[in-house]
Amino acid sequence: MAQSAHLALVYPAFDAAAFLASAGLGRRIVQLAPRQAFFSQGDPADSVFYLQIGRDEMTRVMHEEHVFSDLFLKFLLGRSMRIQADLVDQLFNSSEKRLARILLLMAEFGRPGELGDSHRFIPKISQETLAEMIGTTRSRVSFFMNRFRKLGFIDYKDRIRVHQSLLNVILHDRLPDDDAENPPITALPGGRPKRASVFPAGTV
Fold first, then answer.
1. Which residues pair with residue 119 across a beta bridge?
2. Does the pLDDT of residue 113 top 60, yes or no?
């Protein structure tokens, strides 16, 4: 018991809250304006960020401001559903579909009731990072990216631009080959022509 008391005097208890609330060696406090971004996906990950929000104040706002609490709970529910969807995606979808899904999510396509643009740029991201996100190799990501580009689903120079047509990778189990010809014309009842959707069996 005496030894414990002696150690407490020599090594006082570490106050995590005080440490994070003050500037010091290797750390600094940054004041941010409303809606100011301090980190964007694709930026160099060379720091650890700790966002200070007082628990008591957060609890008070949750109880008193029902609009905010509804928004916060909606966010938590959406986050939980996203994690479940990520797990299902990892377990059951091919790496090609996982890559297409990540690109579409980054481009924010597919929100309910949203029309939006036919194509959108996504933040700068390397093929190595994409490979880590979907659980495959960089060479496979490069192969799929080139395939998506040849099929007109994406294009990129400095930044990747995702076309809404990339949704075809998610909606269909098979996609046409890069050099696929136009599908044959068939006839609907009544003699009206219809173009058939033909997908080869040897898709990657």
1. 163
2. no
